[in-house]
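Quick start: what a row looks like.
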Amino acid sequence: MILFLGVAVLLPPARTIRSAVWRGMIPAALKDAAGILRAHVENVMGEVNDNDDANQNSNANREKEDDDNKHKAMAEMKAAQLQGKCIYHMNALFDGTLAKYTVFEPRLLTNPCSHPPECTAYYLAKLSMLVARVSSASVGIQLFTSREFCYDNLSSGVYSNAADNLEVCAKALATGNAGLLDDISYVNSCSLSSGGIAGEGGEDQNSLKDEDAFEMHHRTEEIAVMSKKWLGAMSATGRKGGADSDDKDVGFCSKESFASMLQNLKPWIRVHISHYIHLFQHLLAPFRKSTWQSLMDAESYDFIKLIWCIKYSMGMVFLLVISVYWPAYRTDFVLAADDDPMKVVYAIQNGGWTMVAYCFATTQTAEGTVKKGILRMAGTVTGAFSAWLALLACESSTFELSYNLYALVAWMTATSFIATFIATERGFGARIALSNSFGFGPIYFVVTQILIVSYVSMIFGPESRDEVIVNRMVANLLGIVMAIVLAVIPPGNYGGDPGHTRKINNFHWHSVQTVVELLISCDDVADELLAKNIQTLDSLSSKILRKSASMQEITVDFEKDAARLQKMTCFKVDPRVKMELGKITRDIYVASFVPRLAAKILKGESRLLLLEKNGHVQQRLEEIRADMANDGITATSQTIKENFHIPSSDLPDREGRDDIDLLLLTIQWLITEMRGHNGALKVIGVNRCGIYQNFNNKRTTSI
């Protein structure tokens, strides 16, 4: 089975996923991010022009007020659409998940090697993560612009340049033309061909770089470099021994090609060993103190997960015990005549099929188990009926096995094709997997049909056809019912429970609180203490990305597993859970940006303004700390004024003032967003068998 899973990634759909990601999804995300940047530039220029016109001719401006309002409304609508698209791209490309699905492609083993040898799938995953971060940063720019953020703080020049570069990268990736990347301009003065970025230096460009509070110039440069590497990896261009290289002695059987092959095989090999590594990590969990402490934390859901595992194990042990030690179950749980010589064989198989059905009907959530069980029931019954028709129609004494094997193969091929086609998603989803909603039904239709036909035609013979079909069907149904019953027995791990999503939101809240507390308590600018605080902030930024990504992955899996058969009223998952999860996924990058920006400020001279006791910044931080501590994440209104800007007299250095302004505004925006998420999740109930139960408001609603 593990070998089959490992070989499965060699199939052509993996290649089409890879092509769709770097030729379709990533270019679309880059174009939408560039659109937001251009909208920002238009806002800046429009604001400047409006001020100039107002000074020159106020009467004429009043006549154009209606047209300007219409234009502004259209611009806001377009910006909102672009923001929604960027959030979608950010979620789709988050953590390079889609790229990691394409960790192996056969033709990469036959290409000349890259130098140094590296895994090309990692290039695509890294490129996906960089594009997701650019999408997040562009949304941030749009949000702060719409909130009357001081336009002077967001330089139009650097973002216009970044938009041009993003569009060029999008075109280069969509067309596969790496040469387009050589002609774009950059803020930094390093060479793209040597692993850096081509461009001209100078005071003007350095000033643009200094005014880039969102580090958009750096983000676009990283995307261009990674795009160049990726396009080189997917063609002979840029490879050692390739068309653009002077070194022509690298062959397919050289040491360099062999090293490159091993690099690309590593992710494929990990498919075989990752299951054992994951199991080993769980075996070590009981020996960690943190594991037992988390069981007492209701927010962690670890106790519910433990009960879920215990219920699953008890069910498996129960089925095994009755199959081995209960004679009546072994002899009576068989649908066959008493004088049937194969009755003992049916009894042994029934016990095994019951456990197999129970095992594979159980998923990680209660809703998913119920719905997968229903789909498996439907697939088992229809598959058994199709197998019965095939065996009945193709029986022939003229063949050695009493069946026309050619007709059976034709029957199973046709019916399996129809079932697979019905279960396949339409559009891009068809490249990844079968339908998440009802794909299990056709899967078990195909599996049941093939197994029954194989058993009867090659082992049992025509005389045992009905007994084999009925016994397999009944044994599977018993195991499925067992899985469903245990799943609905409380406590259950419900994927539609908003608490899983709220857990990520609360982690972001505590992380922002930690940053605020550290900046307030950091009253000493000594080099040693300063370096320690900077390291703490950098570590916190990495921790937010790492831990949030892990929690987001689990929560997405829970929601996806529970969201099958959404048209089914019973155990339906509230669609608002997925919507809020998408918004909180966006906040992951923003939350990690806060400590990283704070560390940047502490490294510069502007830290004196940030740490000045009784200064404007410290007073603002005290207000934020009091607001977070007193009202908490459950507050529905703000107790401090929303807009705050540092007076220019406090710090003549524009770059440092902009960074501090951006830090405070980002923290305040995050607080508002996190409270909004908490409020939205609070009113979402968990659907248990047609009943929405909301434990936050202590109410139950029948649907």
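That is the whole record. The chain has a mean pLDDT of 78. The longest helix spans residues 12-56.
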